[in-house]
Amino acid sequence: MFYVMCIFMFGLVFGLMVVASNPSPYFGALGLVVVSGMGCGMLVGHGAPFLSLVLFLIYLGGMLVVFAYSAALAAEPYPEALGSRSVMLNAGVYLGGALIGASFFWGGWFDGLWPTADEAGELLMSRADAGGVALMYSFGGLMLILSGWVLLLTLFVVLEVCRGSSRGALRAV
Amino acid sequence: MNPFTLALLFFGLLLGTTITLTSSHWLVAWMGLEINTLAIIPLMAKQHHPRATEATTKYFLTQATAAATLLFASTTNAWLTGQWDIQLMTHPIPTTIIILALALKIGLAPLHTWLPEVLQGLDLFTGLILSTWQKLAPFSLLLQIPAANQQVLILLGLASTLVGGWGGLNQTQLRKILAYSSIAHLGWMLIILQFTPSLTLLALITYVIMTSSLFLIFNYNTTTNINSLATAWAKAPLLTSIAPLLLLSLGGLPPMTGFMPKWLILQELTKQQLPMTATIAALTALLSLYFYLRLSYAMTLTITPNNLANTTPWRLPSMKRALPITITALSTTLLLPLAPAMLALVTL
């Protein structure tokens, strides 16, 4: 179990490094896939399998896939990945920074488990991840409405920013 | 823009600031800040020329970075202390990171470089919203963080007053001048934050009123650089005659309102045994005063010799709104005698 968690954590940091080192969008999306996959594995290890499944489905299987399709539409004749010099330089700097940061916080990475059950109010006990969904619809109703409203606002913002074809210097087509 | 979209975006701006102002949980505060960033993006890009789009992109990137840093720092604080309350932050590392993230959000030196370019790409009304409304939410968070003995606050404040004064000296574009003046005033607000937060709030309120009056006057005259300011006297002579008072109020000269926060801040710094900090702040404010004086000189004190071939614009009826200018200009010049009442108003 220890080794599996180690693989997940190293994979997460490596994927983050791939994303941050500014490769072409295809490889950036690949890095994001790796990051979210490893993150989901770590969530399972900390006792939240439901949350991990939901993250896989919605984030990886919904949003990242749409992003990958959009990145595929923006075709690059010579896509750059870890083989090119500038990307390798960025990756090296971030890897060095990650190693330095890791050396600061080296002791006790597995301190403290996720509280797998929690209580709210006087008569309510809920399991951490699946019970959270029920709480979101009951106690967290205002947050749910607010989050839904923010998503609607984001939709209108994106539509307004991209409105009109090729006018406004944001779209080339 | 479609009026429904416009209404939705303005409502989003209102909602975001309100959420952050009324929150005690870091996640909710972060949500309010992100709603503000999202809602103002189309407003900034609505002129659809490349400069506006570039300004919008820069604004989005800096604000997203600041919000992400804020999120990471509050998560670190939750990890270390086990709770998410804004007013109960005790660990110095997340507190400092949050202060730096909020400094990036509002444009304090040395994290100020985005502000002049972003303001330059916007029209004056959107620039006004950016300079005034968008500062309220981050300041509400800065006021609530228990900041005891933070050298970083004084350093940010003094660097901002210095950069705000020094950087504004070489500018001819009014929006960049106003950006640097914003940086300088934010520096003054931050210097006194850890000693008397009510003075920070007072400085913020007076700055919002003073800079609104200037933005609105420049909008009325449709001027964006010093050259067009020099011929703006023909459009509204009354505005031309009161503009130096407003500019000197921003510069902090008595008997205008702008003297109030500077005077009280210097007094408080002296009481806290920090005479060197007070001296440096006062001397760097002189740099800002120079370019405010230059604007007064160009606008009012000199009139370039020219012959007017047609009717001067002030003789013709104008449909422009003057009430906001009236309110803010009067407040900018006449509120100094109300200092005790204003201080009681902002005492937290």
Automatic annotation (TrEMBL), chain A:
The main location is mitochondrion
List membrane-spanning regions: 50-75, 87-110, 130-159
Q: Name one GO molecular function term.
A: NADH dehydrogenase (ubiquinone) activity
Q: Where in the cell is it found?
A: Mitochondrion membrane
Q: Which of UniProt's keywords are assigned here?
A: Electron transport, Membrane, Mitochondrion, NAD, Respiratory chain, Signal, Translocase, Transmembrane, Transmembrane helix, Transport, Ubiquinone
The question of whether Ion transport is a record keyword is answered with no
Identify one Gene Ontology CC term for this UniProt entry: mitochondrial membrane
This entry's Enzyme Commission designation comes to: 7.1.1.2
Reading the lineage from the top rank, the first entry is Eukaryota
Q: What does this protein do?
A: Core subunit of the mitochondrial membrane respiratory chain NADH dehydrogenase (Complex I) which catalyzes electron transfer from NADH through the respiratory chain, using ubiquinone as an electron acceptor. Essential for the catalytic activity and assembly of complex I.
Q: Which family does it belong to?
A: Belongs to the complex I subunit 6 family.
UniProt-recorded name of the protein = NADH-ubiquinone oxidoreductase chain 6
- Native source organism of the sequence: Mugilogobius chulae (yellowstripe goby)
Q: What is the lineage of its organism?
A: Eukaryota, Metazoa, Chordata, Craniata, Vertebrata
Gene responsible for this protein: ND6
Automatic annotation (TrEMBL), chain B:
What name does UniProt use for this protein? NADH-ubiquinone oxidoreductase chain 2
Q: List cellular component terms (GO).
A: mitochondrial inner membrane
Reported EC number(s) for this entry are: 7.1.1.2
Q: How does it sit in the membrane?
A: Multi-pass membrane protein
Q: Which UniProt keywords apply?
A: Electron transport, Membrane, Mitochondrion, Mitochondrion inner membrane, NAD, Respiratory chain, Translocase, Transmembrane, Transmembrane helix, Transport, Ubiquinone
- Gene that specifies this protein: ND2
User: What is the phylogenetic placement of the source species in the record?
Assistant: Eukaryota, Metazoa, Chordata, Craniata, Vertebrata
Pfam family for this entry, one: NADH_dehy_S2_C
Q: Which residues cross the membrane?
A: 57-80, 92-112, 151-170, 177-195, 201-220, 232-253, 273-293, 322-346
